[in-house]
Amino acid sequence: MPRTFGPALVILIAFFAIPAHAGITSGVVDLPTRPGVNQRLLVIAPSAPKAAVLLFAGGHGGLRIESNGSLAWGQNNFLVRSRQFFVEHDLLTIVVDAPSDRQANPFLNGFRQTAEHEADIKAVIAWVRQQEKIPVWLVGTSRGTQSAAFVASELDHGDGPDGLVLTSTILTDKKTRPVPGLPLERLRIPVLVAHHELDGCGHCSFADISALMKKLVQAPRKELFSFRDGQSQGDPCQALSYHGFNGIERAVVSRIAEWILAR
């Protein structure tokens, strides 16, 4: 039977037999965010979470998470396939799907830098904070960096995240604003950038990373982690290339998690 939480009627479809801890538990959540709209989340909770990470996949972002936790798309995405590694570092891990009104093509394409997307993620951050007294971080990869960076730069600190992690950032783009084109100078939260030096995606050349780092003028703590190891298979903009940190996922996530927790 679905469980409800508080007056907002948050539906939890549990697929683990025993709740991980007394706060937010593992499962699939449909969170009301805008009138008539739910934001679906895949939640994996460690026994004693030290921080929360909201993971934004790349591409069109339409994971179409099923009630049992399976995904119709995006299983190979770097953050999606690495989600358990975040949990191993005691991070409450929340995979963010497209909202209920974006569950068909074009999914999050053309939506990532909108007031509606901002409202959805603002509601997710508030939901986490209502139940867990822990920092909330946004973590994006590839196109997901456009979501994470946009939301972080639009929300003030009271409603926004406690930190931001950008992996395989969209650095150039002729059709939409790349991440360096966003008002990142507003950010007054820690920002970590992780990028593969051999990333072959045309939107993510490591040669363009300085434009991103220069925009983080107000961030109280910022750092760039660069990588050269791993292997590349197939399309250079897809998940199993250097762009997706193929073969070094655990090492990349470990460095990210350690940086998040080094408060």
Residue fraction in strands? 15-25%
Could you name the CATH topology? Rossmann fold
The number of helical segments is 6
Q: Roughly how many Å apart are the termini?
A: 39 Å
Radius of gyration: 17 Å
Helical content, roughly? 10-25%
Superfamily at the CATH H level?
Alpha/Beta hydrolase fold, catalytic domain
CATH first level: Alpha Beta
* Domain count: 1
Describe the strand arrangement of the main beta sheet, using strand numbers: 1-2-3-4-6-5-7-8-9-10
Q: How is this structure best described in words?
A:
This protein is of the alpha/beta class and 263 residues long. The protein has one domain (3-261): Rossmann fold (3-Layer(aba) Sandwich). Helices cover 21% and strands 23% of the residues. It has 6 helices and 10 strands; from the N terminus they run E-E-E-E-E-H-H-E-H-E-H-E-E-H-E-H. A 10-stranded mixed β-sheet has the order 1-2-3-4-6-5-7-8-9-10, sandwiched between helices. A hairpin with a 4-residue loop joins strand 1 (3-5) and strand 2 (10-13). The longest helix has 17 residues, at 115-131. The protein is globular.
